[in-house]
Design goal:
Blueprint: H1 15-22, H2 32-38, H3 45-49, E1 57-58, E2 67-70, E3 77-79, H4 80-91, E4 98-101, E5 107-112, H5 117-126, E6 143-144, H6 159-170, E7 188-190, E8 205-212, E9 215-222, E10 225-226, E11 231-232, E12 235-242, H7 245-262, H8 273-280, H9 282-293, E13 315-318, E14 324-329, E15 335-336, H10 338-351, E16 355-358, E17 364-370, H11 374-378, H12 382-385, H13 392-395, E18 398-399, H14 414-427, E19 428-429, E20 436-439, E21 453-462, E22 465-474, E23 486-493, H15 497-509, E24 512-513
Parallel strand pairs: 6-7, 7-8, 18-20, 20-21
Antiparallel strand pairs: 1-2, 2-5, 3-16, 4-5, 4-15, 8-9, 9-12, 10-11, 13-14, 14-17, 16-17, 19-24, 21-22, 22-23
Helix pairs in contact: 4-10, 6-7, 7-9, 8-9, 14-15
The structure holds siroheme and iron/sulfur cluster (SF4).
Pfam families: NIR_SIR (PF01077), NIR_SIR_ferr (PF03460)
Organism: Aphanothece sacrum FPU1
Keywords: 4Fe-4S, Heme, Iron, Iron-sulfur, Metal-binding, Oxidoreductase
C-alpha cells in the first residue's frame, strides 16, 4: 500500500518531499537491472544521488562510480555464511573493497560497482540478507544488545523482537511501501540488557526494560535524535508494555503511522519525530498513538531496570550457557577488509557456532566458544590485529566515515582517530578506558555527544590558512542515567590536538605522563 496521506499541493514541500511525491524511493528496486545496463553516468540525477539509497545503494561523490552498500543487520547478528558472502563481494574490488562496522551495529560495503548490484542482491537474498530501506526516509538498522541470548545477567533476549520489527517494517526484506515515505530517517532500539548497550536515549523509539508490579516489560522513550541543527535525548512516552512480540510490533507500527501521517514535512531540518512531539506536546502525541492502536497504553513503570554502567564487551566472557564464552575483538574504528571478513567467518565457524555479532562501538563479538577451545582461539593470528586487550585510548575509539568516503565530511576522521589514539597511548598512562568519538561534521553519525571526549569536524583558520579542526564535546554519560555531552570548546586545529587532549586526559581522567 502506498502512503495514504499524499498531500494535495506540493507547494509547501521541500525538494525531498517533492521528488518522493513524484516517485517513491522504493520503486527504484524494479529498475536496478536497467541501471546496471546503462551505467551510473546515464542515470537520472535524483535516482542516482537519492532514490538508490532506498535500497541501500549510496552514490559517493567522493569516489564516483564506487558505491557504498548499507545492509541491515538486525540486533547486529550475522552468520559466518553471510559474512563470507559479504567478504567475497568486497574482495572482487581489490583495494577499493572494504567494509565498515557502523554505529548502528551494521555493515557498509565499499567499492561496489552499479553493474554488479543485481547479482549482489541475488547473493544477499540467498543468505537471507537485505539492504532495503537502510537509507533516506526509512527506519534504519534496528539495534539490540549485542550479547542478547548470551549475557548471564540479561533481562530480555531481544533477538526475535528486533528481527520481527525489521520484518514488519521491510516486509521481510522485500520492501514495504507503508514505511518508505516517512518525513525523515527513523531509529529504533530495543534494549534487553542492564547496561543500555544501544544508547537508547538517542533513538526515535527506544524500548527499555522496566518492571511494573513485578512484571518485566518495557518503558518506551521517543524522539531522541542528533542533527546538525539540534540534538535531543529521547523523552518518556509515559507508556509501559509487556513482553509480547505483538505489543512491541503494534506500538512501533502505531508510532510510525502517526509520524508518517502527521510528521512535519515543510522544513527538512525540522522533520524528525521530536519536532512533531514539540508541536503537539507529549500528551497529544501519546493520545494519537493510542487512537492508532485502538486501545489505551499502560502508564510507564516508575523506574527502568538499567542499573549498570555500559560494557564494551571486549575480552573473554562466560555465557549463560555453561562452558561457553563470547569473545569481543577490538576492530580499530570498525574497518574490515575482505580477508578480515573471511577470517572472521572462518573463526566463527571453527570455534563457535557460526555466529558473528557487531556492536555500536564498531567491534565484533564471536560467541559460543567452548572453554576448552579458548586457548587455541586466542592464539589465532587474527587476534594480533583485532586484539582482546587494546590500549585504553584505542579500546573505546569510535569514528564515523569522514572525508575518505563521505561528501558531508569537513575532516578526515578514521585514520586520524587511530593515529591520535596510538600517539596518546604512547605518551600517557591511563587508569581507565576513555571513550573518544570522532565525527566528521555536525550530522553526528559518530555520536560525539555520548562520548567522554567527542570531536566534531569543522574548518578552522590558523596562521592565515583554513585547516581541518574539531569542536570539542565532553560529559557524555552512557549506561545507567545516560545523558548527552555538550560542546565545551570550538575550533581546535587537528594539528594542535595532542597537547590539548593530553592536558584534558591528565586533568579529568587521571592520566599520567609516561
Ligand atoms: Fe549518519 C547522513 C554515515 C549513523 C545522523 N550518515 C549520513 C550519510 C548517509 C551521508 C551521506 O550520504 O554521505 C553518511 C554515509 C557516509 C558513508 O559513506 O559511510 C552517514 N551514519 C553513517 C554511519 C555509517 C557512521 C559510521 O561510520 O558508523 C552510521 C550508519 C548507521 C547505520 O548502519 O544505519 C551513521 N547517522 C548515524 C547516527 C548514529 C546513530 O544512529 O546512532 C546519527 C545520529 C543519530 C540520529 O540520526 O538521530 C546519524 N547521518 C546523520 C544525519 C543527521 C540526521 C538529521 O536528522 O539531520 C545525516 C544527514 C541527513 O540525514 O541528512 C546522516
Ligand atoms: Fe559523513 Fe558527517 Fe556522518 Fe561523518 S558525521 S559520516 S562526515 S555525514
Amino acid at each position: 500500500m502506498v502512503q495514504s496521506t499524499k498531500p494535495e499541493t506540493t507547494n509547501s514541500l521541500n525538494k525531498f518531499e517533492k521528488f518522493k511525491a513524484e516517485k517513491d524511493g522504493l520503486a527504484i528496486r524494479d529498475e536496478l537491472e536497467y541501471f546496471a545496463r546503462i551505467g551510473w553516468e546515464a542515470m537520472d540525477k535524483t535516482d542516482l544521488e537519492y532514490r538508490l539509497k532506498w535500497v541501500g545503494v549510496f552514490y559517493r561523490p567522493v569516489t564516483p562510480g564506487k558505491f557504498m552498500l548499507r545492509l541491515r543487520i538486525p540486533n547486529g547478528i550475522l552468520t559466518s555464511d553471510q559474512m563470507e558472502v559479504l567478504g567475497q563481494i568486497v574482495q572482487r574490488y581489490g583495494d577499493d573493497g572494504n567494509a565498515d562496522i557502523s554505529t548502528r551495529q551494521n555493515l557498509q560495503l565499499r567499492g561496489i560497482r552499479l553493474e554488479d548490484i543485481p547479482d549482489i542482491f541475488r547473493r544477499l537474498k540467498a543468505v537471507d540478507l537485505t539492504s532495503v530501506q537502510s537509507g533516506m526516509d526509512s527506519v534504519r538498522n534496528i539495534t539490540g544488545s549485542p550479547v542478547a541470548g548470551l549475557d548471564q545477567d540479561e533481562l530480555i533476549d531481544t533477538r526475535e523482537l528486533v528481527r520481527k520489527v525489521q520484518d514488519i517494517v521491510t516486509n521481510k526484506g522485500e520492501g514495504n511501501y507503508n514505511f518508505t515515505n516517512l518525513p525523515r530517517k527513523f531509529n529504533i532500539a530495543i534494549e534487553g540488557g542492564r547496561d543500555n548497550s544501544v544508547h537508547a536515549e538517542i533513538n526515535d523509539i527506544a524500548f527499555v526494560p522496566a518492571y511494573k508490579d513485578g512484571e518485566l516489560g518495557f518503558n518506551v522513550l521517543v524522539g531522541g535524535f542528533f542533527s546538525a541543527k539540534r540534538c535531543e535525548a529521547a523523552i518518556p512516552l509515559n507508556a509501559w508494555i509487556n513482553l509480547s512480540i505483538d505489543k512491541v510490533i503494534s506500538l512501533c507500527y502505531a508510532i510510525l503511522t502517526v509520524y508518517r501521517d502527521h510528521g512535519l514535512r515543510a522544513n527538512r531540518q525540522k522533520a524528525r519525530l521530536m519536532w512533531l512531539i514539540d508541536e503537539w506536546g507529549i500528551n497529544k502525541f501519546r493520545a494519537e498513538v493510542e487512537a492508532q492502536l485502538s486501545h489505551p497504553l499502560a502508564m510507564a513503570a516508575q523506574e527502568d531496570a538499567i542499573d549498570w554502567d555500559k560494557r564494551d564487551h571486549i575480552g573473554v566472557f562466560p555465557q549463560k550457557q555453561p562452558g561457553m564464552n563470547y569473545v569481543g575483538l577490538h576492530i580499530p574504528v570498525g574497518r574490515l577488509y575482505a580477508q578480515d571478513m573471511l577470517d572472521l567467518a572462518r573463526l566463527a565457524e571453527v570455534y563457535g557456532n557460526g555466529e558473528i555479532r557487531l556492536t555500536v562501538e564498531q567491534n565484533v563479538i564471536i560467541p559460543h566458544i567452548s572453554t576448552e577451545n579458548l586457548e587455541l582461539f586466542l592464539a589465532e593470528p587474527l587476534l594480533q590485529k583485532f586484539s582482546i586487550n587494546p590500549k585504553p585510548l584505542q579500546r573505546a575509539l569510535v569514528s564515523c566515515t569522514g572525508a575518505q568516503f563521505c561528501g558531508f565530511a569537513l575532516i578526515e576522521t578514521k585514520n586520524r582517530a587511530v593515529k591520535l589514539g596510538k600517539a596518546l597511548d604512547e605518551l600517557l598512562n591511563l587508569p581507565r578506558t576513555v571513550r573518544i568519538h570522532w565525527t566528521g561534521c555536525p550530522n553526528s553519525c559518530g555520536q560525539p555527544q555520548v562520548a567522554d571526549i567527542g570531536l566534531m569536524g569543522t574548518k578552522v583558520r590558523k596562521d592565515g590558512k583554513t585547516v581541518e579542526g574539531v569542536d570539542l564535546y565532553m560529559g557524555g554519560k552512557v549506561g545507567k542515567d545516560a545523558h548527552l555531552g555538550t560542546c565545551v570548546q570550538k575550533g581546535i586545529a587537528c594539528e594542535d590536538l595532542i597537547p590539548i587532549l593530553s592536558k584534558i586526559l591528565i586533568e579529568n581522567f587521571g592520566a599520567t605522563a609516561k
